[in-house]
Amino acid sequence: MQLQGILAKVTCGASSSGLTGPGTTLFLQTFEANKDNAFGAVQRIGPDAANAFQGNYYGSVPITGDSNGFTFFTRWGQPTGNTQNPTQFPATGKLVTQLAIYLDPSDAAFTNEGQKLHYSVALNKAGTAPTFNRDYIFSFGWYSTTDASLSDVTGEALWVSVSHNTGDPKDPNRGPVPITQAGWYYLQHVFYAKPCDTGALSGQQCVYADIKIFTASKGGACGAVYTHSPTGRTASWMLGSDKEETISTVRSPRSGWLIHHQTTAAWQPLMSIDSFSYRTF
User: Fold this and answer.
1) CB-based contacts of 14, cutoff 8 Å, min separation 6
2) Confidence at 114, pLDDT banded by 50, 70, 90
3) Is 0.85 topped by the overall pTM?
4) CATH number of 2-280
5) What are phi and psi of 2, to 5 degrees?
6) Origin, by domain of life (predicted)?
7) pLDDT higher than threshold 50 for residue 49
């Protein structure tokens, strides 16, 4: 319980993301006691303090998913994804989800060119029995060679970009960023309302998401937003303007999921996950 209390205070980039006040923790899960809210094929590993993010236990993400393809899936503490009326999307304030993940871009972890994995947080549609509305996706892909369209980065890297759909992680139009250092990171989604850009929705509030990757240290501490050196590419994106929706049509996060798109035995990513949380500010 002491560890859970410490992690409940960890929300990366509070000042830079405009997260005011102490916030309210609606959901927090680690692997210390169990994996009750971590579904899919993810496995609880420990005691293993040497490799854990914090404490003695963590989640190991395998290559092959469950019957639905998920290597990791959570409903953020909700018993089901579609039989409740989750939090109404706020006219002010923000909804924040965060997942700790270990990423290794070396060829010891990845052996197949273009191997991809995706991590998404999905929002619900409004209604007394909400259904899926839209994904907000991190897409990762491992590449060992230089891409002519991204010639400022040479050698192997785990490229990442974001979109509402899975796709090519290093598509120049998606603002791709290369991760070249193995370590723990936080994947963060910050959902909020702002004036709609579309003329037809003038005067209304629409849903936007700031999506970022933060560096992290063993023990749970947040670092800065990840920036690749020496190119200065920064892992910070905004989604929403391309598919504007008013806040009256959506509700709070429905699910978080991670899935691999290749299942070959040759792919052996050294990937682990740990604390995942959902908070309001």
Assistant:
1) 23
2) confident
3) yes
4) 2.60.120
5) -65, -40
6) Eukaryota
7) yes
* pLDDT given for residue 157 in this prediction: 83
Cβ-proximal residues to 107 (8 Å cutoff; 6+ apart), any chain: 144, 156
Strand ranges inside the chain, DSSP E: 24-29, 43-45, 58-60, 72-74, 94-103, 115-125, 132-143, 157-163, 177-179, 183-195, 205-216, 222-225, 236-239, 250-260, 272-280
Of the pLDDT bands very low, low, confident and very high (cuts 50, 70, 90), residue 202 is: confident
| Amino acid making up residue 7 | L
Q: What angle do CA 170, 173, 176 make, to 5 degrees?
A: 35
Q: How far apart are CA 236 and CA 164, in angstroms?
A: 15
Domain residue ranges in the chain: 2-280
Based on DSSP, count helices (H) and strands (E) in the chain, helices before strands: 1, 15
In DSSP notation, 132-172 reads EEEEEEEEEEEESS--GGGTTS-S-EEEEEEESS---TT-G
CA 17, 220, 61, 26 torsion-angle sign:
negative
Q: How far apart are CA 185 and CA 172, in angstroms?
A: 23
Say whether pLDDT at 132 is over 70. Answer: yes
Among 190, 182, 178, CA closest to 218: 182
| 3-state secondary structure (DSSP) of residue 49 | coil
Do the beta carbons of residue 177 and residue 235 sit within 8 Å? yes
Q: Does an H or E element contain 7, and which?
A: helix 2-7
Q: Which two tokens stand for residue 167?
A: 């796709």
Residue 199 to residue 79: CA distance in whole angstroms? 39
Q: Tell me, what amino acid is at 143?
A: Y
Give the confidence band of 252 by pLDDT, cuts at 50, 70, 90.
Answer: confident
Q: How far is CA 197 from CA 63, 134, 241, in A?
A: 41, 19, 7
What is the mean pLDDT of the segment spanning 55-81? 79
